[in-house]
Amino acid sequence: MDYTERVLNPAKLPKHVAIIMDGNGRWAQQQGRERTYGHKHGVEAVRSVIEGAGEMGIPYLTLYAFSTENWNRPREEVEMLMGLLVQAIHNELDGLMKNHVRLQVTGRLGDLPDNSRAVLQDAIDRTAGNDGLTVVLALSYSGRAELVDMARKVAREAASGTLDPETVTTETVQQHLYHGEIPDPDILIRTGGDCRVSNFLLWQIAYAELFFVPTMWPDFRKEDLREIVLDFQHRERRYGKTGEQVREQ
Ligand code: IPE
Ligand code: IPE
Ligand code: MG
């Protein structure tokens, strides 16, 4: 592609990028190290993409850090990941403040150890007034669990008489998700070479552009994110219409 074309078009920036940060364990094992070594180095990739997303002016970045299914991993790995989360937030908080990042979380947070929840809440409170990139950490997250929790909220309102079932629309569903106010991801990236969504943002990715890349998460950097955003800007999003219709708009 012509070099001049590889310039970001500010009018076509994604509003929301979601990333399945996969491949930490294999990255470490390829080097004859423990899987946990990969998780530690994954933090460097997180720092880089947060910086990159902020520099590009992307408003929302959701990072899949731990799924509900990940609780089934060996106890030592789960404990290490929970410890790493607390340590990473502690170490990165100054940088987040400097970059005007607002931190949010999504998932069944009640599943997390008390100290992890407290550290997260503190970081959410401290960054709440920042007006730059919003980073949403998906922790103990499952797309199906989010839909179950949504259904429970809607059913409760219907049972109490504050909601008429006949008026339920896609907007009602959207509003009862964990973060109904956040726009759907325009881009979903999965590193690590596998082509699956592993229970991530099932409702929200209905029209996301999907990018599956072979790079293992600890090697992923903001330059890789920028290349994906550039490719995204050349994709035609038709939302069910014909290409001609879309180009006429
Ligand atoms: C992603 O890397 C991090 C988490 C799921 C917590 P993995 O730990 O899944 O790494 P691979 O996929 O086994 O290489
Ligand atoms: C998805 O990765 C979850 C996160 C990146 C946090 P997994 O490694 O858990 O996904 P599967 O098991 O390969 O589908
Ligand atoms: Mg994995």
CATH architecture: 3-Layer(aba) Sandwich
Order of adjacent strands in the largest pleated sheet? 3-4-2-1-5-6
Mean pLDDT: 97
Question: N-to-C terminal Cα separation, in Å?
Answer: 26 Å
Q: What's the β-strand tally?
A: 6
CATH superfamily: Decaprenyl diphosphate synthase-like
> Uncertain regions: pLDDT < 50 for 5+ in a row?
none
Determine the structural class based on helices, strands and strand pairing.
alpha/beta
Tertiary shape: globular
Multimeric status of the protein? single chain
Major sheet attributes: 6 strands, parallel
Number of domains in the coordinates? Answer: 1
Gyration radius, to the nearest Å?
19 Å
Helix content: 40-55%
Condensed summary:
The protein is of the alpha/beta class. The protein has helices at residues 24-30, 35-56, 75-98, 114-127, 143-160, 170-175, 222-233, 243-248; strands at 16-20, 60-67, 102-106, 134-141, 187-190, 209-212. One 3-methylbut-3-enyl trihydrogen diphosphate is lined by residues 21-26, 66, 70, 81, 192, 217.
What does this structure look like?
This protein has helices at 24-30, 35-56, 75-98, 114-127, 143-160, 170-175, 222-233, 243-248, and strands spanning 16-20, 60-67, 102-106, 134-141, 187-190, 209-212. The longest helix is centred in the middle third of the chain and has 24 residues, at 75-98. The two termini are 26 Å apart. Helix 1 (24-30) packs across helix 2, helix 2 (35-56) runs parallel beside helix 3 and helix 2 (35-56) packs across helix 7 (222-233). The protein is 44% helix and 14% strand. The protein has a single domain (12-142, 185-234), classed as Decaprenyl diphosphate synthase-like (Undecaprenyl pyrophosphate synthetase), CATH 3.40.1180.10. A six-stranded parallel β-sheet has the order 3-4-2-1-5-6, with helices on both faces. One 3-methylbut-3-enyl trihydrogen diphosphate is lined by residues 21-26, 66, 70, 81, 192, 217.
